[in-house]
What does this fold into?
Amino acid sequence: MKTALLCLWLAVLLTVPLWLTDLYFLHILITTGIFTIAAMSLNLLLGFTGQLSLGHVAFFGIGAYTSALLSLGFDLQLTESYRFAVAPKPVWLAFLAGIVVAGFFGWVIGRISFKVRGAYFVIVTISFAEVVRLVALNWVDLTEGPMALSAIPPFTFGIPGLWEETIYKKQPNYYLVLGVAILSYLVIRRLVLSRVGRAMIALRENEPLATSVGIDVTRYLILAAVVSAAIAGAAGGLYAHYVRIIDPDIFLFIYTVTMVIMVITGGKGTLAGPIVGGLIFGILPVVLRSFAGPEIQWIIYGAFMILIVFFLPDGIVPAIRSWWEGRVGPLAEPEPAELSNARPAERQAE
Amino acid sequence: MSAIPNTAAPVLEPVLEIEHVAVHFGGLVAVADMNFAVHEGEVVSLIGPNGAGKTTAFNVITGFLRPTKGRIRYRGTVLTGLRPHEVADLGVVRTFQKTSVFDTNTVFENILIGLHRRGRCTAWETLLGLPRVRAEEKRLREEAVEILEFVGIARRASELGGALPYGEQRLLEVAVALAARPSLLLLDEPVSGMNPAETSSFMRLLARIRARNITVLLVEHDMRMVMGVSDRVVVLNHGKIIAEGPPAAIQQNPEVIRAYLGHGVRGEGAKRA
It folds into this structure.
């Protein structure tokens, strides 16, 4: 059952550019896909380790800026005598560097999160995102500040030296984003459904018990933060080379909030949650725009969100799962292996 | 305090040595000067009235608290200053006084989490999905089944930990601790809240745990259990050890009776506690 659903889902996603001819909608799908990747990465931290990072957009932005700057090249006069110049690098190399640099900052935040937890961790992450935004805004020599980095080269694909194609069109960009999304999904899935993921879930559920059986909290928090930040960095890189212009507004708090909304409404701590949430809240504003005035749009958006959180407190995916299991039968094989995180029906039964 | 009348295991080396440990919380002295040892293969009970410092002692041994003074050694390694997971890595695993399982995970997953130390694959290997990761996962699952059967909650495998009846939750706790392959198991009031039948079956479980060469340090209020399973009993009162010895001697010890019941009542006190 589950496999059939997955195949159908993949088939739909793969054929979208064939039947969706409206380029505007394809554009919406691409940006939605990019934010869905970011939401998936946030879910690893928020949903599985239970750490609320409200500065997640920092990793997204760091990935975007690193990738953009390396592909454009830059020339910095650091001191009177010392100049630091980087020649433009191929886009794929810049993209990978963006992932690594974002992952590095994830490591830093992960180290801090061992010392500060709960509300303090939230504050640290918000501050971190704000500091990075201010750096991007004010270090004009490097980032062009509010003038924005423009003419960022798009992705190229092909065989180096033989044949190369630059991706300007929407369709290949769509497949690129889809490919990165599937890869990110698989990475997260593999981690989460393993001993590593169990350790993360254990420290979310009951940290004293987790440590008492030998789970090193620091280690797994850092691991989650690094992987999460790296994937967010990848999303940022995709964004930079697709939109091809980025400015410090990329670090705005509203983007983090959007990711959090996607994760929470979809179902935090479930693999499919951020995808469902991401698609809904990526496409909803566009749908609303087509028939409602600007003020009404945000009121509907807000009301919709409140309704979801109010009636489906665990998110859409866990709600659908328990509904399905209540009517039709178990979705997964009855093997007790699948890591279940939220089963509202059973919880109420307690 | 008299010399240790070590009748149960006279030839064995001490594995856990608690040397002049004191724990102060600001002005409050939770443990004043604790000094005892647990020997290989023993079952030692730590008893005392509420607030005597028993759970504090557990927290200090397992790295959840740092002692203000003193030193703890386990098979020669100093535990003082280690973090809980490092203590667990040395084979010292505890349970908690307040029932503590992974509520929203199934019983089977609870055990798999407990088996964490038994896995060796790194995050990289997991990401790459190497064959040995799958082999290890299979091995862990087999071990989990074995532990569930050992403790006797195998038929609950797919139920949520938090949905189990109380007595079985306590068994699950012990199963999770056993999954971490302890050589010294610290049980904090494992049968509190259990009915007499459940307590009896837990005592039989304890005997089987012991047969696996696991040394046990037990904190317990149920005197039937303490007197039934222990080789030695250590009595704490107001953060100090007031008596130590085999169960029979402890039951007669006037100081212990006074600690539990105050002055005047004899005999009855130690039995009922």
